[in-house]
Design a protein that fits this description.
This protein is an alpha/beta fold. It has one domain (2-296): Spore Coat Polysaccharide Biosynthesis Protein SpsA, Chain A (Alpha-Beta Complex), CATH 3.90.550. The protein is built from eleven helices and 14 strands. The strands form four sheets. An eight-stranded mixed sheet has the order 5-4-1-6-12-8-13-10. The protein has a two-stranded antiparallel ribbon with strand order 2-3. Strands 7-14 form a two-stranded antiparallel ribbon. Strand 2 (27-28) and strand 3 form a beta hairpin. The longest helix has 15 residues, at 282-296. Bound molecules: 1-O-phosphono-alpha-D-glucopyranose. 1-O-phosphono-alpha-D-glucopyranose binds at residues 107, 127, 130, 172-173, 195, 207-210, 234-236, 262.
Length: 297
Protein backbone atom coordinates (compact mmCIF):
# COMPACT_ATOMS: atom_id res chain seq x y z
CA UNK A 1 0.00 0.00 0.00
CA UNK A 2 1.20 3.53 -0.73
CA UNK A 3 0.90 6.32 1.84
CA UNK A 4 -0.20 9.82 0.90
CA UNK A 5 0.95 12.82 2.96
CA UNK A 6 -0.69 16.12 1.96
CA UNK A 7 1.85 18.91 2.54
CA UNK A 8 0.37 21.64 0.35
CA UNK A 9 -1.39 23.58 3.16
CA UNK A 10 -0.21 27.10 3.95
CA UNK A 11 0.05 26.58 7.72
CA UNK A 12 -1.78 29.78 8.61
CA UNK A 13 -2.42 28.53 12.18
CA UNK A 14 1.33 28.67 12.81
CA UNK A 15 2.08 32.14 11.44
CA UNK A 16 4.42 34.01 11.68
CA UNK A 17 6.70 30.92 11.99
CA UNK A 18 5.38 29.53 8.70
CA UNK A 19 5.70 32.64 6.53
CA UNK A 20 8.85 31.38 4.77
CA UNK A 21 9.16 27.85 6.24
CA UNK A 22 6.65 25.04 5.60
CA UNK A 23 4.87 24.05 8.82
CA UNK A 24 5.98 20.47 8.16
CA UNK A 25 9.60 21.63 8.50
CA UNK A 26 9.12 23.12 11.98
CA UNK A 27 11.35 21.11 14.27
CA UNK A 28 10.47 18.98 17.25
CA UNK A 29 13.83 18.93 19.05
CA UNK A 30 16.24 17.88 16.27
CA UNK A 31 14.00 16.66 13.44
CA UNK A 32 11.32 18.38 11.39
CA UNK A 33 7.78 17.20 12.07
CA UNK A 34 7.50 15.56 8.64
CA UNK A 35 10.45 13.28 9.37
CA UNK A 36 8.66 11.73 12.36
CA UNK A 37 5.65 11.03 10.14
CA UNK A 38 7.79 9.42 7.41
CA UNK A 39 9.54 7.28 10.07
CA UNK A 40 6.15 6.21 11.47
CA UNK A 41 4.97 5.15 8.00
CA UNK A 42 8.20 3.25 7.31
CA UNK A 43 7.92 1.54 10.73
CA UNK A 44 4.40 0.39 9.74
CA UNK A 45 5.96 -1.41 6.75
CA UNK A 46 5.19 0.92 3.84
CA UNK A 47 7.91 1.81 1.33
CA UNK A 48 6.12 4.17 -1.09
CA UNK A 49 5.19 7.63 0.12
CA UNK A 50 3.52 10.28 -2.04
CA UNK A 51 3.83 13.89 -0.88
CA UNK A 52 1.13 16.19 -2.29
CA UNK A 53 2.99 19.44 -2.39
CA UNK A 54 3.04 23.13 -3.34
CA UNK A 55 5.56 25.56 -4.89
CA UNK A 56 6.43 26.96 -1.45
CA UNK A 57 7.41 23.53 -0.07
CA UNK A 58 10.70 22.82 -1.87
CA UNK A 59 12.56 22.52 1.42
CA UNK A 60 10.57 19.34 2.17
CA UNK A 61 11.76 17.78 -1.12
CA UNK A 62 15.31 18.89 -0.33
CA UNK A 63 15.16 17.43 3.18
CA UNK A 64 14.52 13.94 1.80
CA UNK A 65 17.02 14.29 -1.07
CA UNK A 66 20.77 13.61 -1.04
CA UNK A 67 22.90 16.66 -0.19
CA UNK A 68 26.27 15.77 -1.73
CA UNK A 69 28.16 18.82 -0.49
CA UNK A 70 27.07 18.30 3.13
CA UNK A 71 27.77 14.56 2.99
CA UNK A 72 31.23 14.99 1.52
CA UNK A 73 32.11 17.66 4.13
CA UNK A 74 30.94 15.39 6.97
CA UNK A 75 32.92 12.52 5.41
CA UNK A 76 36.11 14.61 5.19
CA UNK A 77 35.71 15.75 8.79
CA UNK A 78 35.08 12.11 9.86
CA UNK A 79 31.76 13.01 11.47
CA UNK A 80 30.49 9.46 11.08
CA UNK A 81 27.46 9.60 13.35
CA UNK A 82 26.17 12.84 11.86
CA UNK A 83 26.78 11.49 8.36
CA UNK A 84 24.77 8.37 9.19
CA UNK A 85 21.92 10.50 10.62
CA UNK A 86 21.83 12.68 7.50
CA UNK A 87 21.91 9.64 5.20
CA UNK A 88 19.06 7.90 7.03
CA UNK A 89 16.62 10.84 6.90
CA UNK A 90 14.83 8.87 4.19
CA UNK A 91 14.52 5.43 5.81
CA UNK A 92 16.31 2.66 3.90
CA UNK A 93 14.19 1.19 1.09
CA UNK A 94 11.63 4.02 1.18
CA UNK A 95 10.73 5.92 -2.02
CA UNK A 96 9.41 9.44 -1.62
CA UNK A 97 7.46 10.79 -4.59
CA UNK A 98 6.06 14.26 -5.12
CA UNK A 99 3.03 15.57 -6.94
CA UNK A 100 1.68 19.11 -6.97
CA UNK A 101 -1.84 20.10 -5.95
CA UNK A 102 -2.72 22.65 -8.64
CA UNK A 103 -5.25 24.55 -6.53
CA UNK A 104 -5.86 24.53 -2.77
CA UNK A 105 -9.46 23.29 -2.69
CA UNK A 106 -9.37 21.29 0.55
CA UNK A 107 -7.98 18.10 2.08
CA UNK A 108 -10.13 15.79 -0.08
CA UNK A 109 -8.91 17.59 -3.20
CA UNK A 110 -5.27 17.31 -2.06
CA UNK A 111 -5.60 13.55 -1.53
CA UNK A 112 -7.25 13.15 -4.96
CA UNK A 113 -4.15 14.79 -6.52
CA UNK A 114 -2.22 11.64 -5.51
CA UNK A 115 -4.58 9.31 -7.42
CA UNK A 116 -2.48 9.22 -10.64
CA UNK A 117 0.53 8.05 -8.59
CA UNK A 118 -1.29 5.62 -6.29
CA UNK A 119 -3.60 4.21 -8.98
CA UNK A 120 -6.84 2.37 -8.16
CA UNK A 121 -5.37 0.78 -5.04
CA UNK A 122 -6.20 0.86 -1.35
CA UNK A 123 -4.14 3.56 0.33
CA UNK A 124 -3.06 5.15 3.58
CA UNK A 125 -3.37 8.85 4.39
CA UNK A 126 -1.17 10.45 7.06
CA UNK A 127 -1.62 14.12 7.93
CA UNK A 128 1.75 15.75 8.61
CA UNK A 129 0.74 17.94 11.53
CA UNK A 130 -0.37 15.00 13.65
CA UNK A 131 2.49 13.25 15.44
CA UNK A 132 1.86 9.95 17.13
CA UNK A 133 4.01 9.54 20.22
CA UNK A 134 5.30 6.40 21.81
CA UNK A 135 5.62 7.35 25.44
CA UNK A 136 6.71 4.07 26.97
CA UNK A 137 10.14 2.73 26.10
CA UNK A 138 8.77 -0.84 26.35
CA UNK A 139 5.84 0.09 24.10
CA UNK A 140 4.77 -2.57 21.64
CA UNK A 141 2.03 -0.35 20.26
CA UNK A 142 2.14 0.15 16.52
CA UNK A 143 -1.01 2.13 15.81
CA UNK A 144 -0.79 2.48 12.03
CA UNK A 145 0.42 -1.10 11.54
CA UNK A 146 -2.51 -2.32 13.68
CA UNK A 147 -4.94 -0.38 11.46
CA UNK A 148 -3.42 -1.89 8.30
CA UNK A 149 -3.57 -5.44 9.76
CA UNK A 150 -7.24 -4.90 10.60
CA UNK A 151 -8.00 -3.55 7.10
CA UNK A 152 -6.29 -6.59 5.56
CA UNK A 153 -8.60 -8.85 7.59
CA UNK A 154 -12.00 -7.16 7.17
CA UNK A 155 -11.52 -4.54 4.35
CA UNK A 156 -13.24 -1.89 6.50
CA UNK A 157 -11.67 1.56 6.13
CA UNK A 158 -9.79 2.43 9.32
CA UNK A 159 -9.89 5.92 10.84
CA UNK A 160 -7.67 6.82 13.79
CA UNK A 161 -9.52 8.72 16.52
CA UNK A 162 -8.63 10.27 19.85
CA UNK A 163 -10.84 11.32 22.78
CA UNK A 164 -10.89 15.09 23.12
CA UNK A 165 -12.69 17.56 25.43
CA UNK A 166 -16.23 18.14 24.13
CA UNK A 167 -15.50 21.89 23.95
CA UNK A 168 -12.95 21.17 21.16
CA UNK A 169 -15.13 19.13 18.78
CA UNK A 170 -15.73 21.98 16.31
CA UNK A 171 -12.01 21.92 15.39
CA UNK A 172 -11.99 18.31 14.13
CA UNK A 173 -13.76 15.65 12.11
CA UNK A 174 -15.91 13.65 14.57
CA UNK A 175 -17.13 10.04 14.30
CA UNK A 176 -20.46 8.59 15.40
CA UNK A 177 -20.07 5.16 17.05
CA UNK A 178 -23.60 5.08 18.50
CA UNK A 179 -22.55 6.12 21.99
CA UNK A 180 -20.31 3.07 22.47
CA UNK A 181 -17.14 3.28 24.56
CA UNK A 182 -13.84 3.00 22.74
CA UNK A 183 -10.69 2.16 24.66
CA UNK A 184 -7.19 2.92 23.36
CA UNK A 185 -6.10 0.19 20.95
CA UNK A 186 -9.71 -0.90 20.18
CA UNK A 187 -11.86 -0.71 17.06
CA UNK A 188 -15.55 0.20 16.68
CA UNK A 189 -17.96 0.37 13.78
CA UNK A 190 -18.57 3.93 12.54
CA UNK A 191 -22.15 4.96 11.70
CA UNK A 192 -21.40 8.48 10.40
CA UNK A 193 -18.65 11.10 10.18
CA UNK A 194 -19.07 14.85 10.36
CA UNK A 195 -16.47 17.55 9.73
CA UNK A 196 -16.14 20.17 12.47
CA UNK A 197 -19.66 19.98 13.99
CA UNK A 198 -21.07 22.44 16.52
CA UNK A 199 -20.70 21.24 20.10
CA UNK A 200 -24.47 20.63 20.35
CA UNK A 201 -24.56 18.52 17.19
CA UNK A 202 -21.39 16.45 17.72
CA UNK A 203 -22.18 12.70 17.80
CA UNK A 204 -19.24 11.98 20.16
CA UNK A 205 -15.97 13.42 21.45
CA UNK A 206 -13.91 11.10 19.22
CA UNK A 207 -11.85 13.27 16.87
CA UNK A 208 -10.39 12.04 13.58
CA UNK A 209 -6.66 12.09 14.21
CA UNK A 210 -4.76 12.25 10.95
CA UNK A 211 -4.33 8.56 10.04
CA UNK A 212 -6.58 6.69 7.61
CA UNK A 213 -6.45 3.33 5.80
CA UNK A 214 -8.83 3.68 2.88
CA UNK A 215 -10.47 1.28 0.45
CA UNK A 216 -9.77 1.87 -3.25
CA UNK A 217 -13.47 2.68 -3.85
CA UNK A 218 -13.01 5.93 -1.90
CA UNK A 219 -11.17 7.33 -4.98
CA UNK A 220 -14.40 7.34 -7.05
CA UNK A 221 -16.24 9.22 -4.31
CA UNK A 222 -13.43 11.77 -3.95
CA UNK A 223 -13.86 12.55 -7.65
CA UNK A 224 -17.50 13.51 -7.08
CA UNK A 225 -17.73 14.94 -3.59
CA UNK A 226 -18.96 18.53 -3.38
CA UNK A 227 -17.42 21.26 -1.22
CA UNK A 228 -18.51 21.05 2.43
CA UNK A 229 -17.28 22.72 5.63
CA UNK A 230 -15.40 25.96 4.83
CA UNK A 231 -16.43 25.55 1.17
CA UNK A 232 -13.61 22.97 0.83
CA UNK A 233 -13.64 19.44 -0.55
CA UNK A 234 -13.46 17.41 2.66
CA UNK A 235 -11.96 13.94 3.04
CA UNK A 236 -14.37 13.38 5.94
CA UNK A 237 -17.38 13.95 3.61
CA UNK A 238 -16.00 11.48 1.03
CA UNK A 239 -15.57 8.81 3.71
CA UNK A 240 -19.08 9.52 5.05
CA UNK A 241 -20.49 9.10 1.54
CA UNK A 242 -18.55 5.85 1.09
CA UNK A 243 -20.30 4.65 4.26
CA UNK A 244 -23.72 5.79 3.02
CA UNK A 245 -23.10 3.85 -0.21
CA UNK A 246 -22.71 0.63 1.81
CA UNK A 247 -18.98 0.67 2.59
CA UNK A 248 -17.80 -0.20 6.09
CA UNK A 249 -15.72 2.03 8.31
CA UNK A 250 -14.12 1.45 11.67
CA UNK A 251 -12.65 3.87 14.19
CA UNK A 252 -9.41 2.88 15.91
CA UNK A 253 -8.59 4.66 19.17
CA UNK A 254 -4.92 5.69 19.23
CA UNK A 255 -2.71 4.24 21.95
CA UNK A 256 -0.24 6.57 23.62
CA UNK A 257 -0.22 10.23 22.66
CA UNK A 258 -1.34 12.05 19.51
CA UNK A 259 0.01 15.60 19.17
CA UNK A 260 -1.83 18.23 17.14
CA UNK A 261 1.32 19.97 15.90
CA UNK A 262 -0.72 22.22 13.62
CA UNK A 263 -1.50 24.34 16.70
CA UNK A 264 0.99 26.36 18.75
CA UNK A 265 0.05 24.63 22.01
CA UNK A 266 0.17 21.15 20.44
CA UNK A 267 3.61 21.79 18.95
CA UNK A 268 4.93 23.13 22.26
CA UNK A 269 3.64 20.03 24.10
CA UNK A 270 5.17 17.71 21.48
CA UNK A 271 8.48 19.55 21.72
CA UNK A 272 8.68 19.36 25.52
CA UNK A 273 7.68 15.68 25.68
CA UNK A 274 10.10 14.69 22.91
CA UNK A 275 12.90 16.69 24.53
CA UNK A 276 12.26 14.81 27.81
CA UNK A 277 12.63 11.49 25.98
CA UNK A 278 15.62 12.46 23.88
CA UNK A 279 18.62 10.19 24.44
CA UNK A 280 21.19 13.03 24.58
CA UNK A 281 19.36 15.91 26.26
CA UNK A 282 16.41 14.19 28.06
CA UNK A 283 17.99 13.90 31.52
CA UNK A 284 19.37 17.46 31.60
CA UNK A 285 16.13 18.88 30.22
CA UNK A 286 14.15 17.09 32.96
CA UNK A 287 16.37 18.70 35.62
CA UNK A 288 15.82 22.12 34.02
CA UNK A 289 12.07 21.64 33.76
CA UNK A 290 11.82 20.54 37.42
CA UNK A 291 13.72 23.62 38.59
CA UNK A 292 11.53 25.80 36.36
CA UNK A 293 8.38 24.29 37.89
CA UNK A 294 9.74 24.78 41.43
CA UNK A 295 10.60 28.43 40.72
CA UNK A 296 7.16 29.19 39.26
CA UNK A 297 5.27 27.40 42.10
C1 LIG B 1 -8.21 17.72 9.18
C2 LIG B 1 -9.45 16.84 8.94
C3 LIG B 1 -10.18 16.63 10.25
C4 LIG B 1 -9.24 16.03 11.28
C5 LIG B 1 -8.01 16.93 11.44
C6 LIG B 1 -6.98 16.33 12.39
O1 LIG B 1 -8.64 19.01 9.56
O2 LIG B 1 -10.29 17.48 7.98
O3 LIG B 1 -11.28 15.75 10.03
O4 LIG B 1 -9.90 15.88 12.52
O5 LIG B 1 -7.38 17.15 10.18
O6 LIG B 1 -6.49 15.13 11.94
P1 LIG B 1 -7.66 20.29 9.51
O7 LIG B 1 -6.76 20.17 10.72
O8 LIG B 1 -6.89 20.18 8.23
O9 LIG B 1 -8.55 21.48 9.59
Amino acid sequence: MKAVIPVAGLGTRMLPATKAIPKEMLSVVDKPMIQYVVEEIAAAGMTDIVLVTHASKNSIENHFDTQFELESTLEKRVKRQLLEEVRSITPRGVNIMHIRQGQALGLGHAILAAHPVVGDDDFVVALPDVMIGQQRSDSTCDNLAAMIRRFNINAACQIMVNSIPVSQVSKFGIVDIQGNNLNPGSFARVEALVEKPDVQQAPSNLAITGRYVLHRNVWKILQQVQPGFGNEIQLTDAIDQYLAAGGSIEAYHVMDRAYDCGSKLGLAVAYVEHALQHKDIGADFAVHLKSLCRSTD
